[in-house]
Amino acid sequence: MKPLFGTDGIRGQANRYPVTPELTLQLGKALGKIVKAAGHGSRRAIIGKDTRLSGYMLETAITSGLVSMGVDVMLVGPMPTPAVAHLTRSMAADIGIMLTASHNPFDDNGIKIFGADGFKLPDASESEITRLIESDDLNSEHIRSDQLGKAYRIDDARGRYIEFAKSTVQDARLDGIKLVLDCANGAAYHIAPLIFQELGATVVTLCAEPDGYNINNNCGALHPDHVASAVLREHADFGVALDGDADRVIFCDAAGRIVDGDRILAMLALDFRQRGELGKNSIVCTTMSNLGLYEALQAHDIKVVTSDVGDRQVIEAMRHGGYNVGGEKSGHLIFMRYATTGDGIISALQVLCLMKRSGATLAKLADCMREYPQTLVSLPVKSRIPLEELPKLQAVMAAATKALDKQGRLVVRYSGTENKIRLLVEARDEGLVKTWIARLTEAVHEELNA
């Protein structure tokens, strides 16, 4: 059997292994068996999804698997990933399931799984699920018809999350702020606008008309130029671009300049520290974060802890070290006081409240750090040959590391969710960045795409 779980759950092309109804049915049965074996809890599962057409297929299959094992299923429909994590805890479910491929194109889909505590499953649990599916030990015939689970549509799930999100800013109001909100035609299309409106903001909403095919299509966090153009056109104060499942967010200021996760981490870390709310006077970021973030925070005696790439890795480091603020340059931002996973809406609320509290524009707040010149390219590859088995690429990497010395760095890794390799070069000298990105790209083409 091919690997089932990647860096963030299960993901791939819809209706192709592993994102098939057959596998998803087995996954539902495996999860049901684990829930029953625990011998306690509600024997209930929450299932949410984004707006991809294939969500109907996966939702039906995984529901059937769970119900066949005696687990009740609560279907909440299109819902942000962080909302599913929150609802899993607040509704005392044993398991939370989000059907999404996050920022990927509509043709992909995937499955993210949360435990009863609202956190994504650890590696050991994913291994046990894989073992159960591979062993074919999922016979449900021992469940009598009167012991089967039931499936319910939960009509008030949206309202529950809206009130929770608003509560994270207590009594703060957003009156007087005009923002442009790009929902990426994704899971937050019907929730995000209401949250900001109910807090008093004037909201210009973009890409909130999903049709099953247009999720992330030239919009959202992967295409922030779309919201930036609208901010200029609408003379707004602020732009917010969510991704397909709303667990990440990218911003732009009133002049249409993009503000990524690194700058948001920096400004919020400084604010949390000033208010005495920064756990252990530290934040967690990943190897992809700009060196300017480290310099800006170290200048204020804030410690920066580095994890591997992926919001799950950031969260594990946060839980292990007792930190409450962390995130990624890509826009996954985690505020452990409020959420157990990245939450684009709550992140935007934190930024908006800081703007109101300080009276400063986003541009002024984002000016708290200076970025090193950096280039990140993602190249499709035919196969994922281990990096250590690529002599040309290894030689270029060694030469680049020596040339950059202590004035920069490079990161070369395979994507955890797509068949691509990521190349990142960062240095004080922009010429060095261009030179080594070009040489690394050439080596990848020669050895991985020849």
Low-confidence spans: none
Looking at the structure, the CATH topology of the largest domain is Alpha-D-Glucose-1,6-Bisphosphate, Chain A, domain 3
In CATH terms, what is the architecture of the largest domain?
Answer: 3-Layer(aba) Sandwich
What structural class is derived from the secondary structure elements?
alpha/beta
Determine the N-to-C terminus distance: 28 Å
Helix count, per DSSP? 14
What can be said about the biggest beta sheet? 6 strands, mixed
Please identify the top-level CATH class of the largest domain: Alpha Beta
Please count the beta strands (DSSP E, at least 2 residues each): 18
Helix content: 25-40%
Mean pLDDT: 94
Give the tally of structural domains: 3
Strand proportion, as a percent range, falls in 15-25%
- CATH homologous superfamily identity of the largest domain: Alpha-D-Glucose-1,6-Bisphosphate, subunit A, domain 3
- Radius of gyration over alpha carbons? 22 Å
How do the strands of the widest beta sheet line up side by side? 1-5-4-2-3-6
Mass-distribution shape = globular
Could you state the oligomeric state of the chains shown?
A: single chain
